[in-house]
Amino acid sequence: MTTSWADSVDNSVIGSSDANAARPARSTYVPPHLRNKPPSSEPPVASHSSSLPANDRVNYGGPTAGSRGGGSYNRPDHGRQEYGYSGRTGGGWNNRGGGWDRGREREVNPFEDDEATDHAFGEQENTGINFDAYDDIPVDTSGENVPPPVNTFAEIDLGEALNHNIRRCKYVKPTPVQRYAIPISLAGRDLMACAQTGSGKTAAFCFPIISGILKMQHVQRPRIGRTAFPLALILSPTRELSCQIHDEAKKFSYQTGVKVVVAYGGAPINQQMRELERGVDILVATPGRLVDLLERARVSLQMIRYLALDEADRMLDMGFEPQIRKIVEQMDMPLQGLRQTMLFSATFPKEIQRLASDFLSNYVFLAVGRVGSSTDLIAQRVEYVLESDKRSHLMDLLHAQRENGIIGKQGLTLVFVETKKGADALEHWLCLNGFPATSIHGDRTQQERELALRSFKSGNTPILVATDVAARGLDIPRVAHVVNFDLPNDIDDYVHRIGRTGRAGKMGLATAFFNDNNFSLAKPLADLMQEANQEVPAWLTRFAARASYGGGNRNRRSGGSRFGGRDFRRDGQHNKGPEYYGGTGGYGVPASYGGGYGPPGVASAWD
DNA sequence: AAAAAAG
């Protein structure tokens, strides 16, 4: 077992260098008692933003500037029927990049960026998911007549165009969550799916949606004013995550004729409305902007066949639940049973499962992997650090990383803090001390947020200070280290934060700064680490013991099965009838779930 | 208590 975090980064994340070599002088390190001296010789890299390529990506994910006056304004094509692969993909398509965007019909090749990235970062990095990392992990399903899993994409009839795109994405075989979720979803079943961070959930709900839309041959969509009638709606809790899902969905639906549009706040709504007018099959959105569009009658949900909530537990927690209820229950969305609903997350607390069952009809519950963390893939460290020592402690980590060559394009560091102000302050301080950092949080403009994320991803600014806005879902390759500078109060948030590393089968490191303020997290954190086969420091175990014994344990999971990796319907006290899962659904759901109540031993992996 | 999400 390695003892120093630097060793473990060395072994697990990036190639090798001699971690035990004498440390070179720390040109930029200022010990705490000398911190008021002028900053070091190394410039604080303030110019990173201006050095970004100007054509990096279209702002706000909208259409390219050139398409603005394109004359498509009066030609909504909501009623378009051409979903076959043959109709639109034959001749006529010119997907070579670089030229001016002249026609509204032109579809940008979403794979070009990736190919460029592959070259920039060397061969190894982008060979797709390391599937072997997901072998042999526990899977638990419950519900009536659960469709069996598949082992290969070839076994599923996703259609040739989609299969081609899957190959272009370099997905060789489905991840476990995909093996189970895709057949369930193709069978038309509602689904609540729990799967580890970074295990391919986006594709798991996108493939069936795209495939389902391609098979819908004769959908007549109304033409009413400038209202768009999407067939699928994907909701997510942050703007950047919606953007990311949109980008992924565009890849999967490339040259299929299926149109994907994204709508989120902080960006000009007019551009998004124009995109919608040009036709939309799959709408990816954040809740606030969608409500806005619904109220303006620019979007109608009456044709929705597929509803997917990513980070579903987050979408149904206190902050979001009213908006989600409004969208799902109080607008013109078809009732459950008439649409297909899929909920995905890495965490699913029982009380949220209970809420969620309002939206589902005779659903399958699926839990893949030890819900919580990618166990072996993320090395977790906890260090006891007083508030007053956090900055210098972080500095120590960063200097050691720099010496190991783990700062820069090959190794990004994501630092989580509790508050927006704290994020600004830490970013500023890191820059002053010679570490190229940027930040992302809800007080920054959307442009700043997207620039920060791009700059981080590209390695231009290899340190990102973030609030929980970046905790969920974001897939940032090459994040080698997640630092919980401030720990969250909720263990689920911790799980999602550290899940920004160790993705797609690659290894990662997570370091947490713990002190007395985090007392209430001691027990769940110690439990989680133990379950993930991580070394739990003795002092943390002592904290945990005190916490569970005194009144300090207000964690909702204490005593019950942890990590939400279990269908709440299987817990005795919830097992009292159909009111929990579809009272208003069109289907008379029987009080019993058939296969849902397996022998008690089946769920042991989750206890 | 904080963060996110509409403007």
Strand content: 5-15%
**Low-pLDDT stretches:** 1-104, 122-127, 551-564, 575-607
The helix count comes to 18
State the helicity in percent bands: 25-40%
CATH H-level name of the largest domain... which superfamily?
P-loop containing nucleotide triphosphate hydrolases
Cα separation of the termini: 26 Å
Find the count of extended strands (DSSP E, 2+ residues).
14
Major beta sheet, specifics?
8 strands, mixed
User: SS-based structural class?
Assistant: alpha/beta
Gross geometry? globular
User: Reading side by side through the largest sheet, how are the strands ordered?
Assistant: 1-8-2-7-6-3-5-4
Q: Under the CATH scheme, which class of the largest domain?
A: Alpha Beta
Count the domains: 2
Topology:
Layout: H1 5-12, H2 85-89, H3 112-121, E1 139-142, H4 160-168, H5 176-186, E2 191-195, H6 201-215, E3 232-235, H7 239-252, E4 260-263, H8 269-277, E5 282-285, H9 287-295, E6 306-310, H10 312-315, H11 321-329, E7 340-345, H12 350-356, E8 364-368, E9 378-384, H13 390-403, E10 412-416, H14 420-432, E11 437-440, H15 446-457, E12 463-466, E13 479-484, H16 491-498, E14 508-514, H17 522-531, H18 538-549
Parallel strand pairs: 2-7, 2-8, 3-5, 3-6, 4-5, 6-7, 9-14, 10-12, 10-13, 11-12, 13-14
Antiparallel strand pairs: 1-8
Helix pairs in contact: 5-6, 6-7, 9-11, 17-18
The structure holds one DNA strand of 7 nucleotides.
